[in-house]
Amino acid sequence: MSSAPQSSAPHSRRAFLTAAAGLTAAVALPTAQAHATAADRRRGAGTAATGGTLVLVGGALADTNTRIYGRIVAAAGGSTARFGVLTTGSHPDDAAANGAFYADLLKRNGAASAEWLPVHIDSPAAAEDSALAAKAAGMTGFFLGGGDQYRYATVLKRADGRDTALLAAIRSRLLQGAVVAGTSAGAQIQAGAGMITGGESYEALRDGSTPGWFEDATRLGYLPSGGFNFFTHGHLDTHFAARGRQGRALRLAADTGQSRVFGLDENTALEVTGVGSGQEVLRVLGERAVSVFDLRAADAYTSNGEWALDAVRYSQLTDGDRYDPYTWGVTPAAGRTALVPRDRSARRASNDVFSAYVFTGNASDLATSGRSTRMTDYSYQTGPEFAVELRKPATGYSAWTADGRTPSTLHGMALDVYAP
Fold this sequence. Notes:
Helix content: 10-25%
Shape: globular
Keywords: Hydrolase, Protease, Serine protease, Signal
CATH topology of the largest domain: Rossmann fold
Protein name: Cyanophycinase
Largest sheet: 10 strands, mixed
Distance between the termini: 39 Å
Number of strands: 22
CATH class of the largest domain: Alpha Beta
Organism: Streptomyces indicus
């Protein structure tokens, strides 16, 4: 598996930190302006009611993943697709190379053209360049690479929270039918209010969240005004199972009053069609899963002097599964049947529920167990220790399988977090 190379060297000018105060202000979305070309109108992309498409990838998108790249190109017009590539989240020394990398992949997957839009932390004025905005207005798709979502927010949003000229053009094209795809930070920046800026699960459960961006990568930070507000059905988080981000996602949602979280796994996408139409449809594409946390009935409280949360419902969706953001319902992919648990007891995978793929593995193991109705796993750290309990409730829980043995779709599993 490969993805665009990223430098590990720190940026010597941490200028992207200076806009924090302005970015936490509330944002009013601008009115889309009609920029559709005649060709776009002929293929139906110039109608706001139709809405565009988001393809939100959880990071580590393999350059061989034709399932996702092919869908991105198809949504933008296939052989007539014209892409703009943004790598604003990258270190500026890597931005051009990363842009060329993604542009080449898009063309190899069938796009007519793809070019890097040279906007990064060392060239913020380019986001207000009228010629660049006009070029974007003629494109049918945009791809946002990874890095740091806070760089995207700092460069492409003004200090007062409004769109720059380039972001306004991209937003307009999205509402007219274009596709906006992004991986890792490029997906995260498309979130609405409360966009996460960093943090680790254990520290998040222990210490809570704070508005802003922080040098301490373990500290749970967020922007109250959000990112670009393209996706508004709940919080987004990326690299979800690989980096054990379930704890930080739950804490941030509870702290900010958000009732739903979508956790995107690596090399996996959440596709959203009909953006802005009021009839959006969500579908999972790719290798692993999208996790959905439902906090509508959840209650935060204190357990043994520490933060706790109960009555969360958890769903795990894989390739082809659909999710209705209006009814909160799940439609399994075609061909899947009800999972019949086996005569076995559930066993937790490790002694660290937030290590790579442990949480999702525990959920799958519990689903296949005919003897167990619950499973409890724990944080590796013990000062304090946190427990994560999964349960199969008598009502509201379902599981499906594609192969007759392995769970492929879970919906409505119960979840509690507490200090034992």
